[in-house]
Amino acid sequence: MGKLFISEHPLIKSKMALLRDKNTSTKEFKELVNEITMLLTYEATRDLPLTAVKVETPMAVADCEKLAEDVVIVPILRAGIGMVDGMTTLLPNARIGHIGIYRDPESLVPVEYYSKVPSSIEESEVFVVDPMLATGGSAEAAITFLKEKGAKKITMICIVASPLGVKGIQDIHTDVDIYAAAYDTKVDENGYIVPGLGDAGDRIFGTK
Questions:
Q1: pLDDT tens string 8-20
Q2: Is residue 121 over pLDDT 80?
Q3: CATH-assigned architecture of domain 4-205
Q4: What is the pLDDT of residues 62-109, one digit of tens each?
Q5: Which three-class secondary structure state does DSSP give residue 64?
Q6: How far apart, in whole angstroms, are the C-alpha atoms of residue 121 and residue 147?
Q7: 3-state SS of the chain: helix, strand, coil percent to 5?
Q8: What residue ranges do the domains of the chain occupy?
């Protein structure tokens, strides 16, 4: 079974209080998403493999380490785009893919409408990012698609997760770890996490 990591870090908890607030502006909301994503990325990349390298300093040659494997970040459109800057601040050389999936408003079934993923991801560390892991349908479909493209090492990073969404991933993708800033109570009849923070995409892009 994949690992479920829910952050208990004071910085994340404090930033989540601001992120949830309905009065938080679009500008501040985007900044908070970036900051929380950076903190989650720090945790999610803790076990990335390293390779030994020698670096010439102004004084001598130092024995150092660098990331050993290629990193691919795949946001689920559209809200996942809001998390990319936070990740690439720490992983500037990461390759970026995109998967467009929307929830049918009546059936809540995920429908894929766009996908563009870097080639040769079989040995890459792939991070799927989406602010809200609600029903889990979109994330499950995105992970399935990436596995079909050859991805073997996949981690899910989200801002808010629900028990339903986590179960949806863990039941089907038992090898995928999930990192979240908060773990909320439930999903309502419209597929929104409660208490949640509203529609993350609308709040990131100011389309509410």
A1: 999 999 999 999 9
A2: yes
A3: 3-Layer(aba) Sandwich (3.40)
A4: 999 999 889 999 999 989 999 999 999 999 999 999 999 876 777 767
A5: strand
A6: 9
A7: 35, 30, 35
A8: 4-205
